[in-house]
Design a protein that fits this description.
One of its GO terms (molecular function) is metal ion binding. It comes from Halogranum salarium B-1. This is CBS domain-containing protein. Keywords: CBS domain, Iron, Metal-binding, Zinc. The two termini are 37 Å apart. The protein has 7 helices and 12 strands. A hairpin with a 6-residue loop joins strand 9 and strand 10. Helix 5 packs across helix 6. With 190 residues, it is of the alpha+beta class. The longest helix has 18 residues. It has 2 domains: 120 residues, CBS-domain (Roll), CATH 3.10.580.10; 29 residues, no CATH class.
């Protein structure tokens, strides 16, 4: 079993960044092009905010002219910070207590990436499945604990019921295994 998984172990070092002076329309077009729902607003190399799909939509709903309005007028506060050396459990704790769906990741004081809720959930759920594989097996005949010494290559029969739906990406409590995918009730009905 792999213990002490750090943020460095799970983060994708790529992120999408925009300037405060970019227009909301340009930033939104970039989000669509890069297939992301959040961009980091940078002043030089320092994150000063976030622009989410929600922020961009709010600009349009408020009657703002997204083609002319700068990102600095529509952005949200920056996400909470964490270092690459932090444990994944610490990252999950910050996300749940803030609540935040992203964390700004720093390495030796320099911004290096954006940690997503999906990355944290994947890391924590894979650890629980790994720990299930490492559990000793009970011998049905005499109740003694035995291990068979083999590497487990099969799917876990039980899994955490709170995770991310592999179809829609929602964090839900009730997942079912359908055709090898963990999916929520809404996606099962489709």
């Amino acid at each position: 079993m792999r213990e002490n998984v750090t943020v460095h172990d799970i983060i994708g070092m790529e992120y999408v960044g925009v300037s405060e002076s970019d227009t909301v329309q340009a930033a939104t077009e970039l989000m669509l092009e890069e297939e992301t729902d959040t961009v980091v607003v940078l002043r030089g190399r320092e994150p000063v905010g976030m622009l989410t799909c929600h922020d961009a939509l709010a600009t349009l709903v408020d009657g703002g002219d997204a083609a002319e309005r700068p990102v600095s007028e529509a952005m949200s506060e920056p996400a909470p910070r964490i270092t690459t050396l932090a444990d994944v459990d610490e990252a999950a704790g910050i996300m749940f207590s803030e609540p935040a769906s992203h964390l700004l990741v720093f390495d030796e004081g320099e911004f290096v990436g954006l940690l997503t809720e999906r990355e944290v959930m994947a890391a924590t759920s894979s650890r629980s499945v790994e720990s299930d594989y490492d559990a000793p097996l009970a011998d049905e005949n005499d109740g003694e604990l035995v291990t068979d010494g083999s590497d487990y290559e099969t799917e876990a029969e039980e899994f955490s019921t709170q995770s991310i739906c592999e179809v829609c990406g929602s964090l839900v409590r009730d997942l079912s295994n359908m055709n090898g995918q963990l999916i929520c009730a809404d996606c099962r009905e489709v």
